[in-house]
Amino acid sequence: MEDCVENRVSYVEDMVEEIKKEVPITYEQQKELQSIVQSKANQFTREYYKNGIPVDMKYQNELFKKKKGQFIRAMWTRLKEYFNVPRYTAIQKVDYDRTKQFLIMIEFKDFKANELEDKSSWNIPGLL
Predict the structure, then answer these.
(1) DSSP H/E element including 65
(2) Which candidate, 81, 84, 103, places its Cα nearest to that of 92?
(3) What string of DSSP letters covers 67-118?
């Protein structure tokens, strides 16, 4: 009888561990990841334009925003590829700390030239 109970307890514990692996990150964790990405995108965009923004003054803010968006998209793309998920909100809660560390470790030098190209579709006079 005791063995039967121990087997059931062990089975339930195993099931709980399996279920934990399937629980996605919480809303609060999503917000924290978003905050990291936003902060890093600002940092990278400032670094990208450290020698000045190469367009007329009235278009500089718009260009900064578009470049920042480019960094944001690139970071989310890298994260989704690394964790093999269709969207970052599908990352499992058990992987949250690794996810956070992954984002924190991304550096400006990690981006390839093709990820940082200005786009003609931005329609900013004097850009291309």
Answers:
(1) helix 60-83
(2) 84
(3) HHHHHHHHHHHHHHHHHT-SSGGGSBGGGHHHHHHHHHH--GGGS-HHHH--
Which strand (E) or helix (H) includes residue 36?
helix 27-48
Q: Which residues contact 111 (CB under 8 A, 6 or more apart)?
A: 44, 71, 74
Residue ranges, the chain, pLDDT below 50: none
Report pLDDT digits (tens) over 25-57.
999 999 999 999 999 999 999 999 999 988 898
27: three-class secondary structure by DSSP: helix
CA distance 6 to 29: 36
Q: How many CB atoms lie within 10 A of CB 109?
A: 6
pTM, to two decimals: 0.82
- Of the candidates 102, 109, 111, the one whose C-alpha atom is nearest the C-alpha of residue 73 is 111
The domain limits of the chain are 24-116
